[in-house]
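We modelled the chain as a single entity of 372 amino acids. Its sequence is:
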Amino acid sequence: MKLTVNKQSFITAMEKVFPVVPARATLPILQNVLLKAEGESLSLTTSDIQSTVQTTLPASVARSGATTIPARRLFNILKELPSSEIELDTEDKGDLDITVIRAGASIVKLFGIKQSEFPAPAKVTGVQKFVVSQSLFKTILDSVHYAASVDENRKNLQGVLLGFRSGKIFGVATDGRRLALWEEEFHVDRQQEGEWTIPNDAVRELLALLGEEGDLRILISDTNLVFEGPDFKLISQMLMEKFPNFRQAIPAGSDVRVSVARDELLGALRRASILLSGHEGSVSLSLSDNCLEISTPENEAGEYREKIAVKHSGPSISILLNAEWLMDPLRNLSSDEVFLELSGSYSPCVIKTDKPFLYVLMPMRPTTTATR
């Protein structure tokens, strides 16, 4: 294999495939990137068995071929090379491949494992196909992914449920104590309807790959999901554990509705969270007379209180909520205004916006506070 590529294009391609490379792997080949040169392009592929990601970049190919190189070492070297043009020349040396990289006055020799050792990507047959704009799909994942469980004992919740049903596309994530849902109109043929869970790792990789322009092709088989953009392909095993009936967790109505500026509420919560310890810290929301008071329980660090003006309909109410979980949707939404819907101190808090989004957060129970 012998070729010349643009340094920055090579770095950009490595940025797309590198996140899949495991920090530790039982198979050494999984810490390598597969390079394959043919025609007028160079393809890069990485895999952790559960997920495989591939991207391509233009290249001037003098000799077709393929090899694998330790991904982290290659990535670090590329970023330090002085020239904008890079030449790669790989030779077969028995059990090893030797790749010489030339850039300006720099010459680097890297030992690699033969491409035959690299795991073949899963074959996807009998697929269902959907085409979605990348910007829409990125919005869906951005809006819900943070609510997915990371608890190893709840594998069925360790991802985002993707659904095409009843003329809609939706994404939903939950950890059992909160739920985030984005759902909007989307043409779906009845025979194509279904729901599939994208694992957390694949969701993170997609968020790094997706852009704001162009379409995303989604291919779905019995066990695998394929996401194809103009310059990338991600193949992921789907979560096979059954996702719960999430719609049962969404309250049918509320007694109180509050309109509040998102940035103002998020700012107050950030300030309050400084006095909280860890991700389990709670804040109290007390609502009355178009005023929302945000406060922290008194603890060894002190106490925080702030009042902000809101538009309020319904009776006065107070509720105790996890501060981090309350901030999560506010950080990931773009709407200027959010609506809080409440029905009591021990009923779920629902956040809505002018977008097809909702967030359900279960309240916390008061605990005995520490004294100063």
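As a brief sanity check on the tokenised model: The CA atoms of residues 142 and 216 lie 16 Å apart. The radius of gyration is 25 Å.
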